[in-house]
Design a protein that fits this description.
This protein is mainly alpha-helical.
Length: about 170
């Protein structure tokens, strides 16, 4: 039996639906060799496929972050270049899970700082999470992350304020 391509399984419907992204996440967790195929979908033509692939990849890497490492340079590049909101918010959570050098962490943090200017409050909220995650691994990023969180407490959306309060407590512990 021929196995169905992940991109085909992610197609259809509209942006209000995650489609089969949960099933894809489970599939990739049971067949980790298919993670590269999932990651390729992040650059696909179809924005729905990109969105769902990002959702599935983010879910997979909560428990299997090491699967990201072979794709590190591509993901750092995509973090810099992505314009699609759904792609940005998932990248903001995934990229800090990578094994990054100090230079790469600084590059990721700079991209996430730019995400704080996004029109989407979800992107901004997850950028705060990503910055805090990076800062927990790199003391050089703690000051900038703390400043971003404090600024969000003053002028962010309600979701940003709640997340910033929680993240400041984590950074201070």
């Amino acid at each position: 039996m021929r196995r169905e391509a992940i991109a085909v399984m992610l197609k259809g419907g509209d942006r209000r639906s995650i489609g089969k992204s949960n099933q894809i996440a489970q599939l990739v967790l049971s067949e980790p060799q298919r993670f590269a195929e999932l990651v390729e979908c992040l650059w696909g033509e179809d924005p729905i496929v990109r969105m769902r692939a990002a959702d599935a990849a983010e879910k997979v890497t909560v428990t299997r972050p090491e699967l990201l490492n072979p794709h590190k340079q591509e993901l750092l590049g995509l973090l810099d270049e992505a314009e699609q909101i759904e792609l940005r918010w998932h990248l903001a959570l995934m990229v800090p899970r990578l094994s990054l050098s100090g230079t790469e962490r600084a590059r990721a943090a700079a991209a996430l700082q730019r995400y704080l200017e996004d029109r989407s409050s979800i992107v901004k909220t997850f950028a705060l999470q990503g910055l805090a995650d990076l800062a927990r691994r790199d003391s050089n990023l703690q000051g900038p992350a703390r400043r971003a969180l404090e600024e969000s407490l003053r002028s962010g959306t309600a979701a940003m304020k709640v997340r910033a309060r929680k993240l400041l407590k984590v950074l201070q512990s």
